[in-house]
Structure formats: structure tokens, C-alpha cells
Amino acid sequence: MNATSTARVKVEPGGTGVVAHVGLHALGAFADGVGLADVLSARVPVAGERLPVHDRGKVLVQAALMLAGGGEACADIEELRAQPELFGSVPSDSTLKRVLCDELTPSVRATLMEGIGEARARVSEQAGLTASTDPVYLDIDSTLVEIHSENKENAAPTYKGGYGFHPMLCFADATGEALSGLLRPGNAAANTAADHIAVLDLALAQLPEAVRAGHRPGDDAEVATRPIVVRTDAAGSTQAFVAAMGERNINFMTVAATNADIQAAIFDAEGVEGLWQPARRQNGEVREGSAVAELTSLVDLSAWPAGTRLIVRREPLHPGAQRSLFPSLEYRYFGFYTDCEGDPVELDVTMRAHAHVEQHIERLKDSGLTRFPFASFEANAAWMTLVLLAADLVRWFQLLCLDGSWATARPKALRWGIFHAPGRLIRSARRLVVRILEGWPAAHALLGAYRHIQALT
């Protein structure tokens, strides 16, 4: 029996004719296919009398490739720089740092988001997302990012006893796209209505015109052709934010925090025959032991907009479970306010899908969100813009170029199977050809991605 885990080889420098990260080349080719670098280039002003050596749109796309591949600092772009056969002329880490620290000012970032919105509209059209009439669900949530340095501007103690930043983010549930984000100090409150409104407006600006029509402040509701529903946790249950959604003709679903009125309503509802209906899972199956009831008539909702409803779900209280709305020894209760019409059980299923936001945040944290590399707060805000761009580029690539399990794969799986695929360089008919390593498990998916890219262009 052979117990060795590697083959005995001699390792030497100077290898030629091979490349790594073939899948990142596919991701970059896809970005070129949807014109991402072009729309970004047009929105970064030239700093100086001469054109820069590296086009700024190309710099941002290549930096996004670096983040998609697992990079966590500007220096990680050197791995792409070492492979000009695949990635052409790649900027140095000092050039990337200069772009992020000096050139991506708040006003430039705002115009960059307009360009990203243009590319997003193209992808949405290619994916057939704009033709639908289904509601668009937006999920807003904040997260804590631990920072182990006191030298970063606006890093501060967090409400959980840590230290760092407290960014707020908005995602499109149907695609997982990170539509907008707001970098905030670590001591920023979770329920700040102004921040929720800012993140929402930034997200609305990213939606295709056919979707966001009728959802700007003061728009006539008759203009809207696609319903938009915003889901939040209890931090979004402020009257100012709910009113802002009403001004934009947006429906809301927001978690209800416990209070005496809700606890009294749950107590009154217990034992009422026919009030509690079996809860259902996302796939439509009955959730054993769980039930849903609408308690709108049992609570005072006069402070909320007309048509607001309170829907509560109860689940068996397993050992160690944290009690929620009502101090019961048998069940734990979760409730949410909404102005959406429909069956309470179905609305509960829809609200439970807000949990997807945790998966979206984890994807960002696995792709650079936990590594704010600069001392300047504005430079770190530019870094977060780049993180969101990289995450969306990957999601677009999955939507249009990958099939099966790869279309929903997590960053780690994509890197292990697609992005870091190795290949051999050969020349044929005066063209440079990359041949993926024989027997590579994801070779079929990667070749299929290239066929999709060719169809786009």
C-alpha cells in the first residue's frame, strides 16, 4: 500500500506554455462581452494632462477579477499581472491603490454606479428578467465587519462588543445581485431610517427603467408596471422608512419587534379555532408543528399606514431555542408587518425568504468585504464599491454562462472548479489557444461558458 499523498517530482523555476486562472479569463471575457469596462471607462475622469497607461475601466474590471478569484488586497492583482497571455496588460498594485485612494472620489463612484446600472440592464434583458411582471423583492440588511486596527478612519466599537464597520446593503432576491451598499462607522445604529432610505434609493437607481418606473419619490402609482416589495428585519420598522416606501409606491414586509400589544394579541389568539393555519416551506410542503395567523384585528395599527397587517408564525420551542415575541413554554413566535395583499400563509413563505440575505452577505464576505485595506474611510468605501461590482459580475456570469449547480455555486466552489482551472498554451494557425487540463472536472462547464460568451458577442 502506498501512503504518500503526492508524486515525487523535481520543482524548478522558468516554466512556460502553461496558464492558471483560465476561468477568470472567461469571467473577464464575459465582462468585455457586456461592455462593462467601456461604461466604467467613460465615467472615470482623466487625472492629469495625459491619458493613463492603464484604462481605468479595464483596471476596475481586472481588480474585480482579482476579488472574484479570492484576492483580498491590491497586491493580489500581481497573480493576474504574471499572465499577460490571458489578461493582457494588468496594472501594478500601486496603480490599483492610487485609483482607489485618489481617483474614485464620492462623485466619481456615483457616476460609476450609473455605468454599472447600464451593464446591469443589458444583463437583465439578456436573461429575460425585464419581461416578467412578477414582484421584485429587495432585501435590506446590515452586517458587522471586524477590523483589527485602530488606524482606520471611522472604525468604531459595534453594538456586539466588537470593533470595525457596520455597512448596510440591499440585494435583489431573484438574482442575488448586490444593488447598493453604504459603508458606515461601526457604531452606526441598525435602525437609522436615513441610511435605509439612502440604500433603497441607490438600489432603485440600479434597476432597469422598466422595473423602477413609478417607484421614484412622488411618482404616480399608475405609472408602475412592476410591483416592488422591500423586506427588512426589525431595524427597518421605523415610521420614517415605511413612509418613504409609501412615497415610492413600494410595498413593505418588515419584522415586528416584541411589545405588550403583540404579546396580548398572541395570548388572545391562542385556542381560537380556525385562526391558525399550517405553515408551509419554500417548496410548498407543510411545515410540521408550525402555524400562521393574521392578528391584524387584535392589535392597534393606527400609527402604521392604512392597510398594514400583522402576521405571526409560531413554531415548536425546541431545547435551547431563543424565545421571541411571546414568552411561551411551548412555542416561539415570529411576526412581521406588511401592506401586501394575499393569504397569510403565502405571505409568511415570502417573508421567510428574506433569510436569503444572509447567504448574499456571506458571499460578499468571502469576496473581499472583510478586508478593508486602507486607512482612509473614502478609500475603503471605494473598495466596497469594487467588492459589490465583483460580486455582481460573478452573479451575471452565473446567470448567463453557467448551468446546473454551477449557476448557484458559492464563491469557494467557483474558484476551486471554474476560476482557477489550469491550461496549456499552444499556437495554432497564428492564434493563441488555451487547452484546459485533460480530466479537469469542470472542463465541460467552462467550455460551455465560453460558448455562451461567444453567443453574447
Care to describe what's here?
This protein has 457 residues and is of the alpha+beta class. The chain has 3 domains: 18-107 and 374-456, no CATH class; 134-251, Nucleotidyltransferase, domain 5 (2-Layer Sandwich), CATH 3.30.420; 256-351, no CATH class. It contains 16 helices and 15 strands. The strands form 3 sheets. A 9-stranded mixed sheet has the order 7-6-2-8-9-13-12-11-10, sandwiched between helices. It has a 3-stranded antiparallel sheet with strand order 1-14-15, with no helix packed on it. Helix 3 packs across helix 14 and helix 8 packs parallel to helix 10. The longest helix has 25 residues, at 377-401. It is globular, with a radius of gyration of 25 Å. The model has no long low-confidence stretch (mean pLDDT 92).
Observed structural traits:
457 residues; 38% helix; single chain; 16 helices; alpha+beta; nine-stranded mixed beta sheet; Nucleotidyltransferase, domain 5
- Helix coverage percent of residues? 25-40%
Strand content: 15-25%
Q: Helical region count?
A: 16
The figure for the number of domains is: 3
Low-confidence sequence ranges: none
Radius of gyration equals 25 Å
What is the spatial order of strands in the main beta sheet? Answer: 7-6-2-8-9-13-12-11-10
Approximate shape:
globular
Structural class, from helix and strand content? alpha+beta
What profile does the largest beta sheet have? 9 strands, mixed
> How many β strands by DSSP?
15
Instruction: Give the rounded overall mean pLDDT.
Output: 92
Distance between the termini: 53 Å
